[in-house]
Design brief:
434 Repressor (Amino-terminal Domain), mainly alpha
Length: 85
C-alpha cells in the first residue's frame, strides 16, 4: 500500500463508504441500523466528516455492505476524492 496522509485516507474512506452504501441501495439510516446504531449520525459522520472508524466498526460496515474489509479499503476505483468532500 502506498503512503497516504491521514486526511487523504479519511476522505477516500468517506467516499468509499458512501459509494458502496449507495450501490447497495441503503440509506444512511439503514446502514446505521445494520451496524448496530439507532440513527444515521454515525454513518453521516463517517461519510461527511471523514471520521476514522475503529477496526471493529470497519468490519461491521464491510459486512453490512457485503464486501470484505480489503474491498472497503480499496480506493483504486475512486475518482479524485478531494473535490467530493
Amino acid at each position: 500500500m502506498e503512503k497516504t496522509e491521514i486526511t487523504e485516507f479519511k476522505t477516500k474512506l468517506a467516499n468509499r463508504i458512501k459509494n458502496l452504501r449507495q450501490k447497495a441501495g441503503l440509506t444512511q439510516s439503514a446502514l446505521a441500523i445494520k451496524i448496530g446504531f439507532k440513527d444515521k449520525q454515525i454513518v453521516n459522520t463517517y461519510e461527511l466528516k471523514g471520521a476514522n472508524p475503529t477496526a471493529f466498526n470497519l468490519l461491521l460496515i464491510a459486512k453490512a455492505l457485503d464486501v470484505t474489509v480489503d474491498e472497503l479499503l480499496n480506493f483504486s476505483d475512486l475518482e479524485d476524492d478531494s473535490k467530493n468532500c
